[in-house]
């Protein structure tokens, strides 16, 4: 998680809104979501693709898609996520300050939430 932490601006102003539900603010709320996904028993692979980057002197944002899979207990969920990420320049380095992701297919979303959060779909 240390590399992920270095990517994010360490401020209470950061926010993440992803398919696992709710808006998380500040690294203390965001980190457990990533830990659940990437340090749990599942095998997860995600690739950011089909994106555009829009930049100013002090910020940039990327709008695109993520594709990949979530595998757990012999079952695989194909992931197709629309996503945007906002970065700002902090002390001369780009730091992520926002991430939003949405899964379009309601059944895939329910299956993913059930697998990661342990909820029935």
The average pLDDT value, as a whole number, equals: 91
Cross-sheet strand order for the largest sheet:
2-1-6-5-4-3
What percent of residues are in strands?
over 45%
**Count of domains:** 1
**Discrete helix count:** 3
Biggest sheet, in brief? 6 strands, mixed
Distance between the termini: 29 Å
Bulk shape: globular
CATH fold call: Nuclear Transport Factor 2, Chain: A
Helical fraction equals: 10-25%
Radius of gyration from the alpha-carbon trace, in angstroms: 15 Å
List key phrases describing it.
single chain, 121 residues, alpha+beta, Nuclear Transport Factor 2, Chain: A, six-stranded mixed beta sheet, 3 helices, 6 strands
What's the helix and strand layout?
Layout (H helix, E strand, L loop, with lengths): L1 H6 L7 E3 L5 E3 L1 H12 L4 E13 L3 E14 L2 E16 L2 E11 L2 H12 L4
Parallel strand pairs: 1-6
Antiparallel strand pairs: 1-2, 3-4, 4-5, 5-6
Structural account:
- It contains 3 helices and 6 strands.
- With 121 residues, it is α+β, with helices and mostly antiparallel strands.
- A 6-stranded mixed β-sheet has the order 2-1-6-5-4-3.
- Strand 5 (75-90) and strand 6 (93-103) form a beta hairpin.
Quick rundown:
By secondary structure, the protein is of the alpha+beta class.
């Amino acid at each position: 998680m240390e590399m992920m932490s270095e990517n994010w601006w360490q401020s209470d102003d950061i926010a993440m809104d992803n398919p696992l539900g709710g808006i998380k603010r500040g690294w203390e709320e965001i980190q457990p979501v990533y830990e659940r996904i990437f340090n749990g028993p599942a095998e997860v692979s995600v690739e950011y693709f089909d994106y555009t980057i829009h930049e100013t002197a002090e910020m940039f944002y990327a709008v695109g898609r993520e594709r990949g899979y979530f595998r757990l207990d012999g079952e695989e969920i194909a992931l197709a996520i629309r996503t945007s990420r906002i970065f700002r320049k902090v002390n001369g380095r780009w730091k992520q300050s926002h991430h939003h992701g949405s899964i379009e297919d309601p059944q895939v979303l329910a299956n993913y939430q059930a697998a990661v959060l342990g909820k029935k779909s």
